[in-house]
Amino acid sequence: MDVLFFMYALPFMYLFFLILKRVCDKRDQECYILDYECYKPTDDRQLDTEFSGEIIKRNRNLGLYEFQFLLKAIVSSGIGEQTYAPRIIFEAREENPTLQDGILEMEEFFFDSIEKLLARSGISPKEIDVLVVNVSMLAVVPSLCARIINHYKMREDVKVFNLTGMGCSASVISVDIVRSIFKSYKNMYALVVTSESLSPNWYSGNDRSMILANCLFRSGGCAILLTNKRAAKHRAMFKLKCLIRTHHGARDESYQCCLQKEDDQGRPGFHLDKSLPKAATRALVDNLKKVAPKILPTRELLRFSVVLLVKKFSRNSNKGGPKAMINFKTGVDHFCLHTGGKAVIDGIGANLELTEYDLEPARMTLHRFGNTSASSLWYVLGYMEAKKRLNKGDRVFMISFGAGFKCNSCLWEVVRDLGDGNVWEDCINSYPPKSLANPFMEKYGWINNEDPETFVLPPLTGLKAPSSYF
């Protein structure tokens, strides 16, 4: 009788253990952020109005019209006076960079932020199982990953990924790589290091589409520690809920709107085309179409579908009524937007019908730190945390854009109440300021009244410029 019972029970026991194993395996595939550390360069690398103007005047290839264009771009950029630049700028060597300049710029960030992150988390470098580094515009041999491994003496079996050319959206791509690895391996720690090397990439020509990058990009970086260890769940800050990547590289217009190239004089730089806003909007819309069903409640999806159908078949549909909009706030509490520029933030805000409260973290990050490329998202996240906006159970939606052209997004769930001052600690109480206006127009507004026939550039003051300029 016992044998017969066992024979009948065996299939059910097998099914039970199969389900249990699948549930446990799924739990081991979760992706958590344990901690992150944004980089803040030293104060001697801050770009105030006076020094920014002197840097521009050093470029003897610029004429009055280029100065007027730059003034308009800087004044409307949303960038303040406390952003940071690489040391080569302060040494007036931006037109003659060396390979070592780019390497030293990255190592200064690596060894500061990674050191602080590992020390605070109590994790040894030898415990790191996966290392992903993304720096788009600097490729060296040995790789930047290898330099980190050598400095921290990591294990010989650490899984390494060194990403270049992925643009401002690379940190989300790095997280996606980690997530994929976590699906196949248990009990792992992953370190994502995201930054951009500006030292070798200053544009010294006069092509407007390329000098614009000099105004927008600033020094920064972030190191992020992730894990899928169940035992570390209680220490985690965020849990990854969803990640969607959209790539429009097959479209020629999208591919060419944002690329590294040489101008007519052979000077290398970063070209930002007039078609960029259109390409970004198209990529954003396609990305949102895929991510919406995964992060929004069913009731909102049904409401939107009904409104869309009613509008489509309504007799008044041809009279240009209000657009049918999906409300992302029904599934998202906080919006972490890439600080590509004021126009980028405004555009996303308009497309998603966000309030100034929603856009505040991105605007303040752009003002304080500028566009730090792929690491920008983490400064925005740090602002939310420093303002004590992030509470357990909240959902944070990250949106980033990158050359290619790409739009990548992901949704994080806050695992515990957060409120550390992080990189914002020394200035968070002064944000948001009463005005985001910078003093460039007050200082350099006279340029708009100059006559092209008689314009003479004022001499450099307080700076030692290379003799090759004169």
From TrEMBL:
GO cellular-component term (any): membrane
InterPro entries xref list: 3-ktacl-CoA_syn (IPR012392), ACP_syn_III_C (IPR013747), FAE1_typ3_polyketide_synth (IPR013601), Thiolase-like (IPR016039)
Domain FAE: 25-312
GO BP annotations, alphabetical order: fatty acid biosynthetic process
Annotated keywords: Acyltransferase, Membrane, Transferase, Transmembrane, Transmembrane helix
Keyword hit for Heme: no
Reactions catalysed: a very-long-chain acyl-CoA + malonyl-CoA + H(+) = a very-long-chain 3-oxoacyl-CoA + CO2 + CoA
EC number: 2.3.1.-
Active-site annotation: 168, 247, 334, 338, 367, 371
Transmembrane segment boundaries: 6-24, 161-182
Pathway: Lipid metabolism; fatty acid biosynthesis
Gene Ontology MF annotations: fatty acid elongase activity
Domain Beta-ketoacyl-[acyl-carrier-protein] synthase III C-terminal: 332-413
Family: Belongs to the thiolase-like superfamily. Chalcone/stilbene synthases family.
PANTHER family named among the record's database cross-references: 3-KETOACYL-COA SYNTHASE
Name of the molecule in the record: 3-ketoacyl-CoA synthase
